[in-house]
Design brief:
By secondary structure, the protein is mostly beta strands. Helix content is 14%, strand content 44%.
């Protein structure tokens, strides 16, 4: 009799145990599925990521979101700025991190300022690409533009707590072993001087003209070609001279 009661008792527990196992299994399945599925990016958002030139992802680069030069939000890659307004022109500004320097956006934009206007139907995605330059291999390349009287064309300044600058002349840099520019800025830009590899050859492509400004020569060698190659031997500064024509 005792044996039958014990058997009957155990058999009565099987449905309870089975239900418990199903609940636990379903819970684990839901948790695993949820943890592997990211939430969709909201419409009217700007997403900014950072990668090395070789495609390796990394994080922690400061990103400012600005309207008319005023910073309204700050984040760090991978950064998502949500709740934005369609039709408004936003400026996305990326910085650099320790010895990792901005080179360009993956869409071909060579400067660290990207302009984004959302259309209200989807989000915008930007990938900023960077290059690591070890301090022991680094050299600074500064490029300036000025008038014959020495007045500088393009200067950096602080505006409402944000780095800003008056428009200068566009200049872009071709890296060693390439024929295509991989970074650029306007003279006087806050990204200057560029940090590159010492003892390497870089090609400077200066604007030949803009509006009524015409390139005349490089101040150090009087060359009248706006494009020149330089071998970095420590920190270097090159000055392009422009003339205002009527």
């Amino acid at each position: 009799m005792r044996s039958q009661k014990r058997s009957s008792s155990l058999s009565g527990m099987f449905p309870i145990i089975a239900v418990a196992v199903v609940i636990i299994f379903a819970s684990l399945m839901f948790t695993t599925f949820y943890s592997q599925t990211s939430l969709p990016t909201p419409t009217n958002s700007i997403v900014v990521s950072s990668t090395m030139l070789n495609g390796t992802n990394f994080s922690g680069v400061q990103v400012d979101l600005r309207i008319n030069g005023t910073t309204i939000k700050t984040g760090y890659t991978p950064a998502t700025f949500s709740g934005l307004t369609p039709g408004v022109q936003y400026d996305v500004v990326v910085y650099w991190l320790n010895n990792i320097y901005f080179r360009h956006f993956s869409d071909g934009n060579l400067e660290r300022y990207a302009v984004v206007t959302l259309n209200g139907t989807k989000y915008a995605s930007l990938d900023a690409e960077f290059q690591y330059v070890p301090p022991q291999d680094a050299a600074a390349l500064n490029i300036m533009a000025e008038f014959p009287n020495g007045t500088q064309i393009g200067t950096s300044h602080d505006a409402n707590g944000s780095d800003s600058h008056t428009p200068g002349m566009w200049v872009q840099i071709v890296p060693p072993g390439s024929t295509q520019a991989y970074t650029g800025t306007f003279t006087g830009g806050s990204i200057l001087p560029f940090i590159f590899f010492n003892h390497e050859t870089y090609t400077i492509q200066m604007s030949s003209s803009y509006g009524n400004l015409q390139f005349l020569y490089w101040k150090d060698n009087m060359s009248n070609s706006p494009t020149r190659s330089v071998i970095l031997d420590g920190n270097e500064t090159y000055v392009a001279v422009f003339e205002e024509q009527s």
